[in-house]
Amino acid sequence: MGLQIQSKTRCRLSISTRQISYGMKYTKNEKSFTLIETIVASLLLSLSVVVLAGICAHSLRTAKVMINYEQAWDLVDRQLTMVDYMGVEDYLMLDSPTEGTFTGDGIDYAWSVNISETTMEFLYDVKVTVGWIEQQHYKTICAQARISGY
Predict the structure, then answer these.
(1) Does the pTM exceed 0.85?
(2) Each residue of 115-146: pLDDT tens digit?
(3) Cα separation, 5 vs 13, whole angstroms
(4) CA angle at residue 149 from 88 to 78, to 5 degrees?
(5) Beta bridge partners of 141
(6) Can you tell me the distance from the alpha carbon of 130 to that of 137, in angstroms, rounded to the nearest whole number?
(7) Closest by alpha carbon to 130, among 89, 101, 97?
């Protein structure tokens, strides 16, 4: 139905009886969420947020531990490189330090270098150990290499 015009003498105006609704009206034919469905969805969403926050916190702790291990391995590499660069015999003759400490990112690392002769002439076993305290536990890494005395 819409606007209708009849003859010249009589004008008839007809308007549709359909009403426009600006608000939400509940009728039996419409589907909507119940209160329980909304509460369950909210609980699932909040539970997933808590789980994701726990995963993020764990990954941050793991990243910090890996940074400490990386720094310790860097210290091992530096000590082995110094022994190899100087030569084992020169390193021993110069009374170079075989123990020491290093502070990096607020953590104190203790290192030691042990050099021992092998059964083969001019061949030495070089063992570098680095230790540190992390979360009330003592962590240690160790690397051993055979280096020529020449």
Answers:
(1) no
(2) 998 888 889 999 999 999 988 899 999 999 99
(3) 7
(4) 40
(5) 130
(6) 14
(7) 101
Strand partners, 99: 112
DSSP-derived 3-state class of residue 142: strand
Q: CA 94, CA 79: separation in Å to the nearest integer?
A: 15
Identify the CATH number of the domain defined by range 55-148. Answer: 3.30.1300
Residue 3: its pLDDT value, please?
47
The larger pLDDT score, comparing residue 23 to residue 94, is at: 94
Domain ranges across the chain: 55-148
Under DSSP, is residue 43 helix (H, G, I), strand (E, B) or coil?
A: helix
The residue to which tokens 């209708």 are assigned: 4
Q: Are 138 and 129 in contact (CB under 8 A)?
A: no
